[in-house]
């Protein structure tokens, strides 16, 4: 789950942010329990995921991680993309990413009453450990990989093995991000505009 990208591609709109962040914790018709704005965020999240999974840069980059990540290569790629986004000065400078992360946590805590319990229980750890900002560091990626591996029921390798491939193919993975992110950003903008017209 690429939390940083989904937060960033909410374009500073609170309801869109909430929906975008909780989407993986909302199943089926549960989305209709939320306000129209949050529903739009949920649908935006799902559209971004589908776009990401089918993008040529993602399909190519996943091959670098597959020897260790197997069927979870796409999930690990989400984290990899967040790493390169956090380091992208074309989007924001380091101090701005730090401020942005704080604003996201504040908005999520303000919206605590409507968050799915599973997400709400995770939020204090996300904030305290500053997941969004710490994607920029290799140790932050390593920790995120370990968290993903602990939830990946059918992962046969260790997260350290995936991280070793991340380090080995770092340059190529960074190139994949450069090819991918402008496209997903434009897609998210266009999709959000279309959703808000519905």
Description:
InterPro entries: ACP_PD. Keywords: Hydrolase, Lipid biosynthesis, Lipid metabolism. Pfam families: ACP_PD. It comes from Hydrobacter penzbergensis. 74% of the residues lie in helices and 0% in strands. With 198 residues, the chain is an all-alpha fold. It has one domain (3-197). α2 packs across α3, α4 (56-69) crosses α5 and α4 (56-69) packs across α11. The radius of gyration is 16 Å and the shape is globular. 37% of the residues are buried. The model has no long low-confidence stretch (mean pLDDT 95).
Task: Provide key terms for this protein.
single chain, globular, mainly alpha
Element layout with pairings:
Blueprint: H1 3-8, H2 14-22, H3 36-54, H4 56-69, H5 73-86, H6 94-110, H7 117-128, H8 131-134, H9 138-151, H10 159-168, H11 170-197
Q: Overall 3D geometry? A: globular
Name the poorly predicted regions.
none
Helix tally equals 11
Q: Helix-strand pattern, N to C?
A: HHHHHHHHHHH
The largest pleated sheet is described as:
none
Decide which structural class fits the backbone: mainly alpha
Number of domains: 1
Instruction: Please count the beta strands (DSSP E, at least 2 residues each).
Output: 0
Approximate helicity band: over 70%
Gyration radius, rounded? 16 Å
Pfam families: ACP_PD (PF04336)
GO molecular function: [acyl-carrier-protein] phosphodiesterase activity
Keywords: Hydrolase, Lipid biosynthesis, Lipid metabolism
Protein name: Acyl carrier protein phosphodiesterase
């Amino acid at each position: 789950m690429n939390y940083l990208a989904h937060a960033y591609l909410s374009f500073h709109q609170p309801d869109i942010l909430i929906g975008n962040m909780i989407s993986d914790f909302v199943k089926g018709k549960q989305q209709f329990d939320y306000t129209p704005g949050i529903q739009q965020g949920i649908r935006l999240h799902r559209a971004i995921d589908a776009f990401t999974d089918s993008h040529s840069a993602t399909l190519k980059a996943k091959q670098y991680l597959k020897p260790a990540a197997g069927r979870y290569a796409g999930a690990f790629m989400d984290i990899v993309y967040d790493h390169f986004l956090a380091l992208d000065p074309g989007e924001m400078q380091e101090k701005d990413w730090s401020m942005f992360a704080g604003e996201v946590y504040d908005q999520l805590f303000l919206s605590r009453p409507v968050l799915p319990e599973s997400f709400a229980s995770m939020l204090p750890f996300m904030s305290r450990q500053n997941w969004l900002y710490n994607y920029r560091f290799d140790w932050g990626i390593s920790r995120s990989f370990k968290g993903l591996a602990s939830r990946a029921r059918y992962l046969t390798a260790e997260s350290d093995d995936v991280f070793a491939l991340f380090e080995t193919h770092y340059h190529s993975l960074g190139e994949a991000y450069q090819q991918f992110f402008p496209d997903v950003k434009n897609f998210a903008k266009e999709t959000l505009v279309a959703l808000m017209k519905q």
